[in-house]
Design a protein that fits this description.
By secondary structure, this protein is an alpha/beta fold. The chain is 40% helix and 14% strand. It has one domain: Metal-dependent hydrolases (TIM Barrel, Alpha-Beta Barrel), CATH 3.20.20. The protein contains nine helices and eight strands. It has an eight-stranded parallel sheet.
């Protein structure tokens, strides 16, 4: 089982009858069984109508391809009460099995605590985009240190450190001592040594693979694991076993 934990269906798919289907032939060529998807309409500070349209697009993709897509409920924590309602709509009463957060708010802020509490109750993971940019982050773009602060307050919640911060050497070290944080390999260049370093710092049982498609190719990203100097058992855990455990309901 290979599960891509980080895939986007972009806006230009949302009105197609075959919502999201264009991704599947490429996934099939790489042997990817399931794709965990989100849609991020509305830019850095999406309005609630953008959030709802994003999640509706995901729901349509899952309805059409229930054996291939796993959905994230995308949220803007600036709208806290509405976010809690959206969790109920998309996870409790809908098909999604995780929460996706992007760049609307630093993830150490108090608004994230009720969202994390709800994730704990529903036993779903939170995938938080993180990045460390040498040119400076977006205004509210989280770094791994922001996620680490939230994860320390909510040890009962499983968090995925999206991109491991981009600067993965720093990101991995930041979350290494937090057993509820999973290091993600998605995005960035397919650099030699990234997967081996992740396994060495956090353990293979806390590393998950994703592509960040279609912004990145499946092939370039999966090469990080297939070409890594680790055991086949560790590769299997990273490519699917760990993520299957996180999103099962």
């Amino acid at each position: 089982m290979i599960i891509d934990c980080h895939v986007h269906i972009h806006q230009y798919y949302e009105d197609l009858e075959d919502c999201g289907g264009s991704l599947l032939p490429a996934a099939d060529r790489m042997g990817i069984d399931k794709l965990c998807v989100s849609v991020l309409l509305g830019g850095e500070q999406p309005a609630m109508e953008d959030i709802v349209r994003s999640n509706d697009t995901v729901a349509r993709a899952i309805e059409r391809y229930p054996d291939r897509y796993v959905g994230y409920c995308y949220l803007n924590p600036c709208y806290l009460l509405q976010s809690l309602d959206e969790i109920n709509r998309c996870i409790v009463d809908g098909p999604c099995r995780g929460i996706k957060l992007w760049v609307a708010m630093h993830s150490d802020q108090p608004n994230l605590d009720p969202i994390a509490d709800r994730a704990a109750e529903l036993q779903v993971p939170i995938l938080q985009h993180t990045w460390i940019k040498t040119t400076g982050n977006l205004a509210n773009e989280p770094e791994p240190r922001h996620l680490a602060a939230l994860a320390a307050r909510h040890p009962e919640v499983n968090f995925i450190c999206g991109h491991s911060g981009g600067n993965w050497e720093r990101g991995l070290k930041t979350v290494a001592d937090l057993p509820n944080v999973y290091a993600e390999l998605a995005g960035g260049d397919p650099e030699m040594g990234q997967t081996e370093r992740a396994v060495g710092l956090v353990g293979a049982e806390r590393v998950v693979w994703g592509s960040d498609a279609d912004g990145r190719s499946f092939a370039s990203q999966i090469s990080k694991v297939l070409g890594a100097d680790i055991s086949e058992t560790q590769k299997a855990a990273i490519l699917g076993g760990n993520m299957e455990r996180l999103v099962q309901r």
